[in-house]
Amino acid sequence: MAEGRRTRPDRAGGNGCHPRPEDHRDRGGKAAQRHAARPGEGLRAEPRERIRVITEAAGAAAPYGRRVVPVIQTQSLTMRYPATLALDALTVDVEPGVIGLVGANGAGKSTLIKILLGLLQPTAGSVRVLGLDPARDAEAIRARVGYMPEHNCLPPDMVAAEFVTHMAKMSGLPRAAARERASEALRHVGLYEERYRQIGGYSTGMRQRVALAQALVHDPDLLLLDEPTNGLDPAGRDAMLGLIERIGADFGMSVVVCSHLLGEVERICESLVAIDSGRLLRADRVESMTRRRDVLVVEVDEGVEQLAAHLRERGVAVHRSGRELLVPLDDDDTFDLIVGAVAALGLPLHRLGQRRHGIVELFADGSADRAAEYAEEAGRGID
Amino acid sequence: MASTDGAVSAGVIHDIGYQRYAGPRLGRRHVVTALYLHSLRTAFGLGRSAVAKIFPGIVVGLAFVVAVVLVAVRSRAGGVIPYTYLQFIDGLGIPLIVFLAVIAPELVSRDLRSRVLPLYFSRPLRRSDYALAKLAATISAVWLLLAGPLLLIFLGGAFSRSGGASAVWREFTDFLGGLGYAAITAVVLGAFAVPLASLASRRAIAAVVIVVAFAATAPVIGVIEAVGGTTAQQLGPLVNPATLLTGLETWIYRDDKLAIGPYGPLYLVVAVALVTACVAATVARYRKVTV
User: Fold this and answer.
1) Span A295-345, pLDDT tens digits
2) CB proximity under 8 Å: B 4-23 to A
3) Level-2 CATH architecture, domain A292-356
4) Interface confidence (ipTM) of the complex
5) Assigned fold of A72-288
6) For residues B235 and B263, is the Cβ–Cβ distance under 8 A?
7) Within a 10 A sphere around the Cβ of A364, how many other Cβ atoms?
8) Which entry of A84, A132, B136, B222 is 20 to 30 Å from B240 by CA?
């Protein structure tokens, strides 16, 4: 994965959840900048900005720490269909940001989303969305949430601009504002030029963009995207993921992205909720899932055995793995030791870096097969 | 992700220029009204492709042609011909059924077919709101289809009729009676057609279902008329929405279109029951529909 990103370990965070300033995922600085740049902004935007700043601050101190208002909270949420148990006592808190909801097909992702929208009534347990209860305040929630279903949901014989305008009105926007926001939303998803064409003539990628545009046309606080990359080719998939990442970073919305492809949500999400057969596998921030393990990977173009022997002589427990040597990282001297050994032997050093936990390992307990499946799919990209 | 990797955040924000929406957010009533108006426009093919305008256009054109002919004939005859507003509506029976077979699937089945309902139901309106807005739009469309030509007939009649202000006033009250009957017709036929259309997601099938539902009971009435006793003949028209309407008209406007005997109030009760049942069925249908 991201080995060799640095030559020296930054161990200040200790728990592996320290901020990574070079990473585009870290948006504390960005949010703070915006906060400062637009101090007198409208009332609606203000609290959200604050939440985001707190998230980042809290994220630095205590990664999965409190004090942040969760966008989604479930408590022993259970959904039983006549034949199956779709959700089995699911308890999870989801903080603002871009959140990946991963699980195999039939894991209960869509069921969860429909419960969040108040479209389904759970069999048992409680749920809160943006601090509201879908059973009682479904309309208030739906006014503040945007939803993109997993299947094609667009009338083919309508013009995209008309359709998105209509959907904006259905979210309570006045006519003029609806028209304006529809144009804007279509521009943001990259369909400005084509917006006066009938949806029936669009490609799958364009249709997915229209579906996304209608979900964010009313400027929701939370976007629920159910398999937004469904049926897209690799380029379309990348474009869609980039778009979602930008929405999370620049539009100030929280986004829940459902996917059965771990690899793609891992790229754009800040935190991850993994469910399997309606049960929570794990929920955590992505960086703590992919935290550095205290192992150094050394790769030399030749003389692997030589180097291993050299290091063992100096009391280092070297483990060979193919062409790589894995060295436990005890302290900073380990680096010097390895570099010294390589120099002494005159070997061509190819790589020296820290190994990260693969995110796939979160499925390690008993779900190894499924994890392998995910990894395979993620690696393959698509079809 | 190369585009965002390491990009300076401020530049990206500037390029995208996303503006939060701080304007008003209107409530459920506004949303339902907007859906109703949108559906009403859709019924006549407004804001739709040229193809979608063909059928509503033909029916509307036909209704106006009949009205124009009527105005012309009446003006030549000095305004005294027995063809009234009510008869105009009755005369449009089959075009009305065709109109319903076109617009009800257009308003209802199309949304089912394109699976757009989850988008509605994930917005601040209830399932029953959707059902009622669609019903109201269908009923209004039928009423407008009738009211336009009726207005034309009234204007024609008012200008051609001799007899001064009192004659014009009589014409006007007749016109209001015609609008009232148009409303009754629209409510009964519209409410009957929408739940039928909501059963099928293909427009063609929904249209056939509607036409068959209207036509299927006609032979029954024929048989009853042929072999039944007086009472059976007086009650027979109840089984078909179209003849039910004629019976209702006979009772309310005291003309002699149908021999309904003393059963006028029963026609009203059946009509109200039919409409109530159809509305309930539509609402129940959308409560059940999976999204």
Assistant:
1) 788 888 888 888 888 888 888 878 887 788 888 777 778 888 888 888 888
2) 4-7, 9-10, 12-13, 16, 18-23
3) 2-Layer Sandwich (3.30)
4) 0.85
5) Rossmann fold (3.40.50)
6) yes
7) 13
8) B136
